[in-house]
Amino acid sequence: MPADDAAPAPRLPLTILLAAPRGFCAGVDRAIQIVERALGKWGAPVYVRHEIVHNRHVVERLERLGAVFVEELDQVPQDRPVVFSAHGVPKSVPAEARARQMLYLDATCPLVSKVHVESERLHAAGREIVLIGHAGHPEVIGTMGQLPPGAITLLETLADAQRFEPRDPANLAFVTQTTLSVDDTAEMVAALQARFPGIAAPHKEDICYATTNRQEAVKALARDSDVVLVIGSTKSSNSVRLAEVARRAGAKAAHLINSADDLDWSWIDGARTVGVTAGASAPEDLVEGLIAALSARFDARVEEVTVTEEDVVFKLPRVLQDA
């Protein structure tokens, strides 16, 4: 029989464990809607200070609709709307916008705004504040920028927590970035509480519901997965944490990819079960594209692993509610 007539090799079986919840959270969904509705209300261009969320596919889609992403307000014409990203901004940014009489829309996630308000309340009460987070992340820059320089000390690691020396150990409080590893943060908080038993904690945990839920979901599938694929950007703190959490929870390997285009098929060699999840700023169509790519090569069966249902919705700014 000619080689051309040979039957194709049968596709190997593959189980895909699909994490739920995954992908967009309420804060990301709100931020994207703010840009879309601003474009609908005022037309293009609408300017956005920094990436609205940390996902290249989201940013590129909004650019096609007429959004222009800039780093600072001096790049924005005074007569055009500007949106502040979901990560939050220092107080100096809206102050500059007001001074220039600009039309601005604040897309800061309400759960990040909660940390801002909390920090201001603690500062007003005379507390010394430590922020658990990652240096250089826009959310951390925004939170530290709510207060005068030096009012907040950033702690990034357990070692930082163990060697930190406050000015007044009896008058200390902590807040956290919303997108951290739940387990790593708990370890740091425990170290601080052991050293400073009187340290004030947030009224409600600062790590957001979506970060917590996505980490719990990836833990639930990691131990049964030969490899876990996390869709998200390397700039996205919550996405990076998901890959870390998967490895710690028992996955033999975990990889962070922007989309199916980044998949290295050698990662799947010999795998019988692949876990799939997505960071809070990754759209569902990228998950669908990854499953389609896996299904084209393997005899794939998809099982959803659900740890909780999410029904959180955040209101849009009033000026956009009729847009």
Fold and architecture overview:
The chain folds into three domains: 12-24 and 209-306, 4-hydroxy-3-methylbut-2-enyl diphosphate reductase, catalytic domain (Cobalt-precorrin-4 Transmethylase, domain 1, 3-Layer(aba) Sandwich), CATH 3.40.1010.20; 26-109 and 313-320, Rossmann fold; 110-195, 4-hydroxy-3-methylbut-2-enyl diphosphate reductase, catalytic domain (Cobalt-precorrin-4 Transmethylase, domain 1). The strands form three sheets. The chain has a five-stranded parallel β-sheet, sandwiched between helices. Helix 2 links the parallel strand 2 (46-49) and strand 3. It has helices at 26-42, 56-65, 92-99, 110-124, 138-144, 158-163, 182-195, 209-222, 237-248, 284-297, and strands spanning 13-20, 46-49, 67-70, 82-84, 104-106, 128-132, 152-155, 172-176, 227-231, 254-257, 273-278, 299-306. Helix 4 (110-124) packs parallel to helix 5. It has ten helices and twelve strands. The protein has 323 residues and is an alpha/beta fold.
Write the layout of secondary structure elements.
Layout lengths: L12 E8 L5 H17 L3 E4 L6 H10 L1 E4 L11 E3 L7 H8 L4 E3 L3 H15 L3 E5 L5 H7 L7 E4 L2 H6 L8 E5 L5 H14 L13 H14 L4 E5 L5 H12 L5 E4 L15 E6 L5 H14 L1 E8 L17
Parallel strand pairs: 1-11, 1-12, 2-3, 2-4, 4-5, 6-7, 6-8, 9-10, 9-11
